[in-house]
Amino acid sequence: MKALRICLVSALILILLHSASEAQPVMSAIRMKIPSLAAGDTAKVNELTRNGFKNLSSKTETFAKVKAYIDSALYICERRRIEIPALMHLLMANYNLLTGDYLNASAEAEMAMKISEENKEYKTLIRTYFFLGSYYSTIGIYNESINNFEYGINLASEKSIRGLIPRGYYGQAGVYNNTGNFLEYEKALQKMIAASHEENDTMNMLTGYLLYGTLKGERSWDFKLSDSLLKKSYELAVIVRDTAAIARSLGNLGFSNYLAQDFKTAISLYNKSLEYVKATNDVVMLSNAYGNLGTIYRDLGKLENSVSNYKKGIEYAKKVNDWYELYWIYRDMSLLYLKAGDTSNAYTNYVLYKQFSDSTILRNRNQWLNEASIRYKVDTQQKEVQLLSLRLKNQRTLSYAFAFLVPLTAAVAFLMWRGSKLKDKRRISEMNRQIAEIQQANLRQQMNPHFIFNTLNSIQYYMYQHDK
After folding, report:
1. Closest CA relative to residue 310, chosen from 283, 329, 297
2. Within the chain, how many helices (H) and strands (E) appear?
C-alpha cells in the first residue's frame, strides 16, 4: 500500500508539472542552456532582436515585421541550441503587450528578468523593470507600475548606467498624469529634467520641459514659468532639429499665451507652429492648431477668421475621425454663433457638438470597459497560475513529507522491533537465572538428608569404638 501511495503521488506531481508547462507562453517553449555552437549565430540573433525593437510601435502593420524577426531568432536558437537571450524575451514581452496577449507578456518579462539577473545584464534588467512599469500601468495596477519604474531607476543609479534614469521618471510621470495625481506628476517631471541635465540627455530634457511647461500653463496658470519652460523646450528642439517637437513647443506656447490673454502673441506662435506641423503632416496637430486659432479669433470678435479656422480644424479632424477635436470645435463654434445672434447655426453646431460629445463619452466608456475586462482577464489568469503554483507547492510539500515519513516510520518500526527483541532477551535471561536458582535450591534440598545420614553413621561408628 505504501508503494502504491508513493506511485500515485509521483504521478500526480508529473501531471501538474506537465499542466504548468502547457500554461507557459508558446513563444517561450525553448529554454535551452547549451552554449552557442557558433558566434555568428548569436550575433545574428542579437541583430534580429535589435531590428525587432526598432519596429515596435502601436501601428498594426509593424506587428508582422516584429513577429518575423522573433520567429527567425527563435528558429536559430532552436536549430543551433542557443539559449534565448534576455533581450529577446523582452522583445517578445513588448510584442505580446501590443497585441493584447497580457499573460504571455508578463511571463516573457519574468523570463527576461530571470536571465538578465543570472547573467548580470543590468541594462536589460532595467529595461525589463521599465517594461513592467508600462505593463502594470496598461492593466490599471498603478502602484506596481510606479514601483517597477522605481526599481529600474534605483538599479541604474546603483550601477551608474546612463541613458535610462530619465526614461524611468518619464514613465512614472505618465502614470501620475493618467491617475490625475498632478502633484506627483510635477515632481516626476522635475526629476526627469534634473536627471536629463546630469546625463546631458537632450531629447528627454526637451520632453521634460515641454510637459512641465504645459502643466504649469494649463493647471497652475503660472504663465510666466510656463512660457520660460516651453521656450527652453523650443530651443532644445531647434538644436536637435526635431520638427515635431518644435511644432509642439510653439503650439503649447501659443496656448499658454492665449490663456494669459496675449492673443496677438498666441496667433503668431500658432501660425509659426503650423509651418512646422505641415512639414510633419501631423493631421491631429493641424486640427488642434486651426481649432485653437478659431477660438482666439472668436474671442477677438473676428467672426470670419474664426469660422474659417474652425472649418479647417474640422476638415483635418474628420480625416482621422478624431472625435475629441470635433466635439470641442463644434462646441466653440456653437458659442460663436450664439454670441453673434445666429441661432440657426448655433443650434446646428450644438447638435453636432452633442453628437460627438456623446460619441466621445461612449468611446471613453467602452475604453474603460475594455480596460476593466483586460484587468479582470489578467487577474483571473494570474490567480489561476497562482492556484496551480500553490497546488504544485502543496503536492511537493506532501511528497517531501511522505518521503520523510516513510524512512521515519521504518526507523521507528526497527527501533520498536529491536526493543522487543532486547526485551525478550532480558526475559529469557531472567527466566534462565530463576531456573538456575531453583536447581541450586533443589540440589541443596537433595544434599541435606544425605549429609545428615553420613554424620549419624560417623557418630555411631565413634560410639562403637568408644572414641570420646
Report:
1. 329
2. 17, 0
Stated pTM of the model: 0.63
Q: pLDDT value at position 340? A: 83
> Would you state the pLDDT for residue 444?
64
Q: Which residues are CB-neighbours of 352 under 8 A, at least 6 positions away?
A: 326, 330
For residues 214 and 230, the answer to whether their CB atoms sit within 8 Å is yes
pLDDT (average), residues 350-364: 66
**By mean pLDDT, which of 82-86, 303-307, 320-324, 372-376 is the weakest?**
372-376
Distance CA 41, CA 72 (A): 11
Give the whole-angstrom CA distance, residue 261 versus residue 231.
18
Q: What's the CA gap between 205 and 140, in Å, rounded?
A: 27
Closest by Cα among 268, 239, 244, 243 to 255: 268
- 114-161: pLDDT as tens digits: 999 999 999 999 999 999 999 998 888 888 999 999 999 999 999 998
